[in-house]
TrEMBL record:
Residues 11-225 form the Phospholipase/carboxylesterase/thioesterase domain. Gene3D superfamilies: alpha/beta hydrolase (3.40.50.1820). One of its GO terms (molecular function) is palmitoyl-(protein) hydrolase activity. One of its GO terms (cellular component) is nuclear membrane. InterPro entries: AB_hydrolase_fold (IPR029058), LYPA1-2/EST-like (IPR050565), PLipase/COase/thioEstase (IPR003140). It comes from the Eukaryota. Keywords: Acetylation, Cell membrane, Cytoplasm, Endoplasmic reticulum, Fatty acid metabolism, Hydrolase, Lipid metabolism, Membrane, Nucleus. This is Acyl-protein thioesterase 1. It is an enzyme of class 3 (hydrolase). It comes from Rostratula benghalensis. Homodimer. GO terms for biological process: fatty acid metabolic process. It catalyses: a 1-(9Z-octadecenoyl)-2-acyl-sn-glycero-3-phosphocholine + H2O = a 2-acyl-sn-glycero-3-phosphocholine + (9Z)-octadecenoate + H(+); 1-hexadecanoyl-sn-glycero-3-phosphocholine + H2O = sn-glycerol 3-phosphocholine + hexadecanoate + H(+); S-hexadecanoyl-L-cysteinyl-[protein] + H2O = L-cysteinyl-[protein] + hexadecanoate + H(+). It is found in: Cell membrane; Cytoplasm; Endoplasmic reticulum; Nucleus membrane. The gene is Lypla1.
Amino acid sequence: MCGNNMSAPLPAIVPAARKATAAVIFLHGLGDTGHGWSEALAGIKSPHVKYICPHAPVMPVSLNMNMAMPSWFDIIGLSPDSQEDEAGIKKAAENVKALIDQEVKNGIPSNRIILGGFSQGGALSLYTALTTQQKLAGVVALSCWLPLRASFPQGPISGVNKEIAVLQCHGDCDPLVPLMFGSLTVEKLKSMINPANVTFRTYSGMMHSSCIEEMMDVKQFIDKHLPPVD
């Protein structure tokens, strides 16, 4: 597995227009890079927020006949009962926690950081938020699912993020990660964290992609949970 040792290039960053007092760390989907999402986030940015879009390492992906591509962890299949890359998911979550720690060192407290992602990146952001001891401001989970869901206890989690705010979004015409995955994920989330803090939005006609309406909902969520402090 030479792919896991390759260091990924430095994240694409949209700096805050003034002193950064909050941050959004956003994880792209399979086969993508952080650049497209950094451009999308630049379109909805707030002046006090720094946006960090890391690039996944390149590794062979089972789903794509072992072709190497940017991937946070291996994906073996796309059905709900497919085997999952448990070791890879946990390692990727540790890497995301290290990114959060880096921002804390830079002077942004973890409770002023929103973690987000699209598809595989959204899955990783959900898993990381539910397993970390870093208190976060919220999670933006776009067109995704909760990985290793059987590893979570039945009922509410006891961690620091049991009251975390989650914005989960999904297109109703998604052929890759069907809307059903999103619906199952939101039900599981509501059993684990305060259900009043979980928002599920669906978009008519949207496939495995994003749309302006969704980005406006993301902006509203970020502005609400990362308000200016000065």
